[in-house]
Design brief:
about 325 residues, alpha/beta, two-stranded parallel ribbon, 13 strands, binds uridine-5'-diphosphate-4-deoxy-4-fluoro-alpha-D-galactose
Length: about 325
C-alpha cells in the first residue's frame, strides 16, 4: 500500500513515515517545509534504509496534488499538514481556517478524482474542550476553546459528512493526546522554531542551556500538585497507531474515531522530575500565572483503540524523557 503523508517531514509525520516503511508500506511525502526541512526526510531514509519520494508542495494547491496523484498510485492519505499553535490561532484565525480547511477539502476532491478512498486524519484531544470529565471517551460531546481546536473539529465534521455521502470512503479520526519523545536513533524529533509553546520542547531547551528556566503555568489547578495534568504519549507509540489505523481502514468503510493516549496523566512537575531522573540534568523553574484556556486535566480512555485496533502505548515516561534528550542534545 502506498500512503501519501501530508506534513510528512513534521514531528509526528516523520515518525509515522519510519513506522510505515518498517511495516512494509510505501510512503510519499507532500510538505511545504514551512515548519520542517527536507533533511528530516534524509534522516528517515537513514533510519529505514529505504528511499522516500517527496514533493515540496502546498497541500491546498489542487494542481500540485494532482501531479502527486498522477505520478504515484496513492492508496491512502494520512493528513498531518496544518497549523498547530493555539496562541497564534487566536491572533490569526482566518489564516488557520484558510489553511487547515483548504488542505483537507483539496485532498478530498483530488482523492475522489483518483479513486483513493482511505483518509486518516490527525485530530486532537483539544476537541474534548473544557466540559468533559476525564478520562475522555470518543463518544463524549465536543467543543473547543480556540480557532486551532475549531479547525480540528470542523475537519472531523467535514470528513464524517464525506464518509456518509461516499460509501467507498474509509475515514479514521485519530485524537492525539500529548505526543513527546523522539525516535530512539536520535536522528529525528521535535525541533520547534522560536520559543516552544509546548512543555517538553521547552524543558529540553532548558536542559541544553538555550533557555534559562521553565515557566510553570499555574499551580492552582484541581490536580495532585496543582499543576496541569496531561496524557503524554511517546511519538513512536503514536506513529504505530497510524499503522493500525491504516490496516483497519483497509477493511472497514465509514468513519471511526480513536483516542491515541496512554490513559495515564502526569502533572507539569511530574514531567520535570521524570526528566531530571532520566537525564541527570536539573531543570530550574518558576511558577507563573495560568495560560489562557488551559484545563486541569486531559487524559484518554484508550480502551477503544486496544479493543478495535489492537493498539496500546508501550513506552514509559522514562523512555519519553530519555529519548527527548537523546535527540535534543545533538541539536546545534
Ligand atoms: N506548560 C507549562 N509551561 C510551558 C508549557 C506548558 O507549564 O512552557 C504546561 C501547560 O500549562 C499544561 C502542560 O504544560 O498544563 C502541557 O502543555 P502543552 O502546551 O505541552 O500541551 P497542551 O495540553 O496545552 O496542548 C496540547 C497540544 C495542542 C492540543 C492540546 C489539547 O499541543 O495541540 O494538547 O489536546 F490542542
Amino acid at each position: 500500500m502506498t500512503v501519501l503523508l501530508t506534513g510528512g517531514a513534521g514531528f509526528i509525520g516523520s515518525h509515522t513515515c519510519v513506522e510505515l516503511l518498517s511495516n512494509g508500506f510505501d510512503a510519499v511525502i507532500a510538505d511545504n517545509f514551512s515548519n520542517s526541512s527536507p533533511d528530516v526526510i534524509k534522516r528517515c531514509e537513514k533510519i529505514t534504509g529505504k528511499s522516500i519520494r517527496y514533493y515540496n508542495a502546498n497541500v491546498a494547491d489542487g494542481d500540485a496534488m494532482r501531479k502527486i496523484f498522477s505520478e504515484n498510485r496513492i492508496d491512502a492519505v494520512i493528513h498531518f499538514a496544518g497549523y498547530k499553535a493555539v496562541g497564534e490561532s487566536v491572533e490569526k484565525p482566518v489564516m488557520y481556517y484558510r489553511n487547515n480547511l483548504d488542505t483537507t477539502l483539496t485532498l478530498l476532491e483530488v482523492m475522489k478524482e483518483f479513486g483513493t478512498d482511505i483518509f486518516v486524519f490527525s485530530s486532537s484531544a483539544t476537541v474534548y474542550g473544557n466540559i468533559n470529565p476525564v478520562p475522555f471517551t470518543e463518544d463524549m460531546p465536543t467543543s473547543t476553546t480556540n480557532p486551532y481546536g475549531t479547525t480540528k473539529l470542523f475537519i472531523e465534521k467535514i470528513l464524517t459528512d464525506a464518509s456518509c455521502a461516499d460509501k467507498n470512503l474509509a475515514v479514521v479520526l485519530l485524537r492525539y493526546f500529548n505526543p513527546i519523545g523522539a525516535h530512539e536513533s536520535g536522528l529525528i524529533g521535535e525541533n520547534p522554531k522560536g520559543i516552544p509553546n509546548n512543555l517538553m520542547p521547552y524543558i529540553a531547551q532548558v536542559a541544553s542551556g538555550k533557555r534559562e528556566k521553565l515557566h510553570v503555568y499555574g499551580n492552582d489547578f484541581n490536580t495532585h500538585d496543582g499543576t496541569g495534568v496531561r496524557d503524554y504519549i511517546h511519538v513512536t507509540d503514536l506513529a504505530k497507531g497510524h499503522v493500525k489505523a491504516l490496516e483497519y481502514a483497509a477493511k472497514h468503510k465509514g468513519c471511526e474515531i480513536f483516542n491515541l493516549g496512554t490513559g495515564t496523566g502526569y502533572s507539569v512537575l511530574d514531567i520535570v522530575n521524570a526528566f531530571e531522573k532520566a537525564t541527570g540534568i536539573k531543570i530550574p523553574y518558576v511558577i507563573d500565572g495560568r495560560r489562557a484556556g488551559d484545563i486541569d486535566e486531559s487524559r484518554a480512555d484508550a480502551s477503544k483503540a486496544l479493543r478495535v485496533l489492537g493498539w496500546k502505548a508501550e513506552k514509559s515516561l522514562f523512555d519519553m524523557c530519555a529519548d527527548t534528550w537523546n535527540w535534543q542534545k545533538n541539536i546545534k
